[in-house]
Structure to design on (120 residues):
């Protein structure tokens, strides 16, 4: 068996509409039109879907410092300014190592996300 790519990533949210708004308006992802109550977004060849959760994530179910989903961006500084305009809390600010820079934050449902810029 050889895995070729990630096909779908599913995220949970109590407020699906609010989460979809965040991914569409704040992160700028294009919502696919044909998935009814479960919003789907396409990023490259991967689909991200938001599923209805009946209860909020409990703190022990959340990863405090390891993102559930990371997006690569061309310019991290511009991305951070965009997040700040939308009042997204950046609890650790911009972090870096020798090969990359990143910022982590939570979506409205509590999923930990990351935007990363890689040295080429």
């Amino acid at each position: 068996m050889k895995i070729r790519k990630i096909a779908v990533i599913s995220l949970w949210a109590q407020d699906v509409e609010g989460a979809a708004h965040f991914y569409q308006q704040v992160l700028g992802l294009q919502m696919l039109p044909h998935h009814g109550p479960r919003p789907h977004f396409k990023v490259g060849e991967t689909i991200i879907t938001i599923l209805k959760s009946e209860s909020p994530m409990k703190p022990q179910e959340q990863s405090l410092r390891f993102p559930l989903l990371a997006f690569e961006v061309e310019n991290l500084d511009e991305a951070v300014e965009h997040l700040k305009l939308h009042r997204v809390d950046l609890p650790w600010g911009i972090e870096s190592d020798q090969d990359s820079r990143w910022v982590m934050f939570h979506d409205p449902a509590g999923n930990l996300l990351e935007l990363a810029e890689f040295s080429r």
